[in-house]
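Sanity check

After download, print the first record. It should look like this:
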Amino acid sequence: MYIVSACLAGVRCRYDGGDREDPKVLELLAGGEAVPVCPEQLGGLPTPRSRAEFVGGDGEDVLDGRARVVSEEGVDVTDFFLRGAEEVLRIARLLGVKEVIFKDKSPSCGVRVVWVEGREVPGMGVTSALLMRNGLSLRAAGG
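Expected C-alpha cells:
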C-alpha cells in the first residue's frame, strides 16, 4: 500500500486548481494499492490557493523551526503545512503504509527538489521530511 499525492491521482487539488495525473499512480489506485492525500488541503488550505515557497530553508528546516512557508503575498502559512504533514503521517500510521509516491517541487510533497526564495533547489517538502523522519520510504513520481 502506498500514499500518493492526490494531484498525481488526477484530483484537482494543486494550488492552481489543477492536477498532475500520473499513469503509474492511476494503476496503483485501480489496483487498490494507493491512498491519495493532499497535505495542503488536509492542513486547511483551500483550492485554489496562492502559490507558496520556502523562506530560510526547506521542509527539514521548517520541522526544526529554522524556516517557514510563505505565500506569494507574503503570508506565513507554515502552520497549515505542518498540520497537513501531521495528518498525512496519521493516515500512514492508521493504514500501516510504509511507502510514499509524491510530486516533486511542492512545498508539501517535494522529495528531491523544492522552491526556496524563488530558486529551485535540492530539498524536501514539509510532509516528505516528516514522513522520512518517521521511517517511511519516499520517491518522486517518475523517479
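If your output differs, re-run the checksum step. Summary of this record's structure: The chain has a mean pLDDT of 97.
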